[in-house]
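User: Second chain of the day. Same drill as before.
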Amino acid sequence: MFGRNIVAPSVFSTDLPSSISSSYNLMSRHNPGTSSKTSHEVQEYGAPEKGLKIVNTSSILPEETSNLVGFVVAYRENGKESAMRLIKHFSSECEDDWKKESYLVNELGETEHPNILTYCWHCKAQECDLNFKRTLFPRLRKSAFLLCYDFTESTPLDEYLKNKKIVLNLDTLFVVAVDLIDAIQCLENRGIVHNNITTSTVLIAEAFRVPPVKAILAGFGSSQLISRDFPDCNEKGRTIKDILGKNIVQFGCVLTELMRNCSESGEPDELQGIVHLCSEQDADIRPNASQIGDLLRDLWRQNDIWDSSV
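Assistant: Same format as last time:
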């Protein structure tokens, strides 16, 4: 079902790769030594993990495109423990972008939500000792800034849906939809607008449940904090619910894609009703993530579809 070879991150321009692999073990969730500054500054950070070996650098950008961002995949082995890491690197010109994303995912990482990509640490490249496994791998500039996420074996939802060997039935549709709306509810609770919830930023991983899949929301490169990025929203006639509604509208688009690819043509009409609610322009009518989650779970039960952890 999932990719077995480490490949270049290529699915989204500023976020995660098309497929990833190898054994891993979840380790530190977020740096326990962090402390908050103002909402416009990145938090203090400690040293990154030691013993990281770069195993894929084809995503490192050439000199002439150093004003952009890219990814490298790293592996760490310490005795019986091993971990895969996805390191997003920013050029010195993109320091502000690094600060904004690091601040946001560090704040979000405190929730340790199972359906949100796990933030690990962030630092300046000159403070991180990376071991390049192959001598021909190009090196990261010392002036770069690094942001590290846990690297879970997974496949972006758009690639998952294209896989003709996979049959997306109604059970799996509800699992993915409920996982995703739970992640969005977490964003709402933290006052975060994702801005890029699509089938390419939703990852499908294996899980100990029936059906054996789990959806993970990634791709926070363009996300915004209401407290930081919309300080005067009420003065401009926009409510917080209206701003956060963008998450719901984009969820509706993903749900539409799931329904379009569902192998069971007789999916409940109520699902289409949920899509219509998500696209409602009136913020007072459009439901929030918690309400949509309740609608999905009720519909799940009504259709004798169940989910069970193993």
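Confidence is low (pLDDT under 50) at residues 1-43, 61-67.

User: Great, on to the next one.
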